[in-house]
Design a protein that fits this description.
alpha+beta; 10 helices; globular; binds alpha-D-galactopyranose
Length: 373
């Protein structure tokens, strides 16, 4: 990499992964529980300091032209598109009081974009990890997810929770990340699919995410209003679901609350099962989570419902949509020797219905962000 000004930038390479969420959907912004794991797909940032410069030259495989960010761009909303995520992290670091030297960054990624696999969190967390190391910023790893989330909430303007940035930063290979989204307490729960003779099929439904931003923000507002009506800080604090449902006059709000409260319960049960070495037994919880997202949270679409139903008919132990919803990916927990049959059954059902062919891969739990060299 050349610094483009005669000086040679000091180099290093950092990576941060995409994620799937095993269970715990739309619970993070309700101060609840999630259980994601990191994918092998990741964003790679090759970077070096530009001595004496106050600019950040960012090139990427997503764009033909490099973008040069200056301090004027470190104002929420100023840079847009993929560069907005990079600028958002730089802004969040400076806003937290850290001095940022100029740098040259080159970004590459194999995290699918628009599939609900957290390509944006992978970008944010790779840039954040690189900048912290390069600039000698002593930001504890445990505090990084909130800073990357702030980049997305405030700079990019997406009201996401903390799950994706936490997964991309904190995950450990061979484990799922049990995260309390209020305290950010973390437990790395063993998640060794191969040892259990299982596989996790990830099926990208390739459904365009229509209206996803509006619908996401609307779900979040409904939950926050419900918590206020119920007199609790967040829906995570609802202990008596029946009493809460009786207290809420609006039927849609009742369904949303029921999803969040029961989903938190399912996450805890899944964690108990994994701690007990009973990985195959989480299947029914995955399927129950899907039904709850379909019927109560109303965030699924025909393609993902079909993939789930066909996977179950073809012998999956459990299946659910993963991520924010309105498209994206489906997870199917399968006996390893059934993976090809399940994959083929879904592809056949999509062809019969005239849906675009799905893309699928097998996922193992990978590591969170780190410096490669
Ligand atoms: C998106 C958001 C996350 C989370 C999920 C739903 O991925 O970025 O914060 O809310 O949706 O669980």
């Amino acid at each position: 990499m050349s610094a483009g000004n005669g000086t040679s930038a000091e180099q290093g390479v950092w990576v941060a992964p995409g994620r799937v969420n095993l269970i715990g959907e739309h619970t993070d912004y309700n101060d609840g529980f999630v259980l994601p794991f990191a994918l092998p797909h990741r964003t790679v940032v090759t970077a070096g300091l530009l001595p004496g410069a106050t600019r950040w030259a960012v090139s990427s495989s997503f764009a033909s032209e490099p973008t040069v960010l200056t301090p004027d761009d470190l104002v929420p909303g100023r840079a847009t598109g993929w560069a907005g995520y990079v600028a958002g992290v730089l802004w969040a670091l400076t806003d937290a009081g850290y001095a940022l030297p100029g740098a040259e960054l080159s970004v590459d990624s194999d995290v699918p974009v628009g599939a609900g696999l957290s390509s944006s969190a992978a970008l944010e967390c790779a840039v954040l990890t690189a900048m912290c190391d390069l600039a000698g910023i002593d930001l504890p790893v445990a505090d990084r997810p909130r800073l990357a989330q702030r980049a997305e909430n405030v700079y990019v303007g997406v009201p996401c929770g903390v799950m994706d940035q936490a997964a991309s930063t904190l995950c450990r290979a061979g484990h799922a990340l049990f995260l309390d989204c209020r305290s950010l307490a973390v437990e790395h729960v063993p998640f060794d699919l191969a040892a259990a003779g299982l596989a996790m099929l990830v099926i990208d439904s390739r459904t365009p995410h229509q209206h996803v931003d509006n619908e996401y923000a609307l779900r979040r507002r409904t939950c926050e209003q419900a918590a206020r009506q119920l007199g609790v800080p967040a829906l995570r604090d609802v202990d008596d679901l029946d009493a809460a449902l009786r207290a809420l006059p609006d039927a849609v709000t009742r369904r949303r609350v029921r999803h969040v409260v029961t989903e938190n319960q399912r996450v805890r049960r899944a964690v108990d099962l994994l701690r007990a070495g009973r990985l195959p037994d989480i299947g029914p919880l995955l399927t129950a989570s899907h039904r709850s997202m379909r019927d109560d949270y109303e965030i699924t679409v025909a393609q993902v419902d079909l993939a789930v139903d066909v996977a179950l008919d073809a012998g999956a132990l459990g299946a659910r949509m993963t991520g924010g919803g309105f498209g994206g990916c489906v997870l199917a927990l399968v006996d390893a020797d059934r993976a090809d049959a399940v994959r083929a059954a879904i592809a056949g059902a999509y062809a019969d219905r005239g849906f675009d062919p799905p893309v699928s891969f097998l996922a193992e739990a990978g590591a969170g962000a780190y410096r490669v060299r």
